[in-house]
Amino acid sequence: MGDQSMQVLAALRENVAAGEGDAVCRLAQEALGIGMDAMQAINEGLIPGITEAGVRFERKEYFLPELILSADAMKNGMDVLEAAVVAGGIRRNVLATVVLGTVKGDIHDIGKSIVGALLSAHGFHVIDLGVDVAADTFVDRVRKSDAQMLAMSALLPTTMPYMKRVIDELGRHGLRDKVKVIVGGAPVTAAYAQQIGADGYGDDAIAAVRVARSVLGLHA
Fold it and tell me: What's the number of domains the chain is made of?
């Protein structure tokens, strides 16, 4: 690898970790401009950068605003590089398809979006349904996408019970045994996840990636 390529990859890592979205977009375009393979830029630039942001978050060197900036910066880079991957007729290796959303009655988006960005960075195909998602919408998308996982978020204690309703609906449609369910959000606990029959619980976005890999039997 040439010096220029190494410098661009290092800059991608540093700027994703620092949450510099404009710089990441420019560097992703520069990577393509010098002939770098888009997958190399993703795997050796963006992913190590967001991983480093996650490490800093766990060490409490970063807090939620910094993690949001890093996730947004990574998405900027992914928009540029994934377009090049598609144009080149190359498919990223996908670990699993995950349907993601905030449950009905809850319009909180930030935590859910960070989880989606991190899952995408770590090789998952994420179908983000957004916020205020009804049970039948979750079930329909799980069925149509043949997803291996459903990830639900709730930030309001009053909307937490809706997670159980979605799980029950999966059962009624014969899908519960075909999809793993993980849940999260500020008021949600591991005990509650177990109580409603979820397969896993993540107390933050970084943990959600580990839990997703674990419940699907994907080991580092």
Answer: 2
Residues of the chain with pLDDT under 70: 1, 90-91, 219-220
80 shares a domain with 29: yes
User: Closest Cα to residue 25, out of 80, 67, 62?
Assistant: 80
Residue 29 phi, psi dihedral angles, 5° rounding: -65, -35
Tell whether 204 and 130 lie within a shared domain.
yes
Encode 49-87: b = buried (16+ Cβ within 10 Å), e = exposed: bbbbbbebbeeeebeeebbbbbbbbbbbbbebbbebbee
**pLDDT tens digits, 35-51:** 999 989 988 999 899 88
Per the document, the length of the chain is 220
CATH of the domain at 131: 3.40.50.280
Domain hosting 81: range is 3-87
Residue 159 covered by a domain: yes
The pLDDT tens digits for 145-187 are 999 999 999 999 999 999 999 999 999 999 999 999 999 998 9
